[in-house]
Specification:
By secondary structure, the protein is mainly alpha-helical. About 70% of the residues lie in helices and about 0% in strands. Among the domains are: about 80 residues, Up-down Bundle (Four Helix Bundle (Hemerythrin (Met), subunit A)); about 30 residues, no CATH class; about 35 residues. The longest helix is centred in the N-terminal third of the chain and has 26 residues.
Length: about 220
């Protein structure tokens, strides 16, 4: 077994463990952190497959931006874990069916392989020097020619997710201490400050009979 195979098994094992913890973690913040670990291991697998552009994009876009946004949104939402657990068993049958369907599709794809996937073309196939060949350019051509509509659908889904995250974060909360600037501008001094007239000095009250008796005993 060469070193590439060893790294593949290492990254794959950590990826599977992180994906399992994403599903089973009770704390949503911990789940997001495990998801970031899973993305980093997936990026390492992309690098082993010589897809440097995909690996770097996964690190820069998802780990550097999207997952940090998810982490801040989850921390700001202050999710009540007890209320989330109440509907677990009610939604479990549908989730199990969908998960089994996705697992079956992955098994079929892995079992059948990728018959239409060809190896990286060499200089004779592309008609250019092999040193000038760029897999990033070929990936861009595929994304914006043959797979243009799936890319647009993915962009719309990400836009909807971003709008939903903003809407959930900016919702009206009872414990929010946000201040309306319009109300601050129209504040008047007499509404905030009340001057109560008081005498400069006050005379001592006259001694009572109980106070005089106590002083005589002393």
């Amino acid at each position: 077994m060469d070193y590439q195979t060893g790294f593949f098994y290492l990254f794959a094992a950590v990826l599977l463990f992180a994906a399992y913890r994403v599903v089973t973690a009770r704390n949503p913040v911990h789940a997001v952190l495990f998801l970031m670990l899973a993305f980093s291991q997936a990026a390492a697998l992309w690098l082993l497959l010589k897809a440097e552009f995909l690996g770097i994009t996964l690190v820069l876009v998802y780990l550097g931006a999207v997952m940090v946004l998810f982490l801040f949104v989850v921390m700001m939402l202050d999710i009540n874990i007890d209320s989330v657990r109440k509907g677990f068993w009610k939604n479990f049958p549908l989730a199990a069916i969908l998960g089994g369907l996705v697992a079956a599709e992955l098994m079929v794809v892995l079992w059948a392989g990728f018959p239409t996937l060809a190896a990286s073309p060499d200089a004779a196939d592309v008609g250019v020097n092999a040193a000038n060949y760029s897999n990033t350019r070929e990936l861009g051509l595929l994304l914006y020619t043959e797979y243009l509509y799936p890319v647009e659908v993915a962009a719309v889904i990400l836009l909807v997710a971003m709008i939903a995250a903003i809407a959930l974060t900016l919702r009206q909360r009872k414990d929010s201490k946000a201040i309306n600037p319009a109300l601050q501008v129209h504040v008047r001094a007499r509404d905030r400050l009340v001057i109560v007239p008081m005498a400069a000095t006050q005379k001592a009250p006259p001694p009572t009979d109980n106070t005089a008796a106590e002083e005589g005993k002393a």
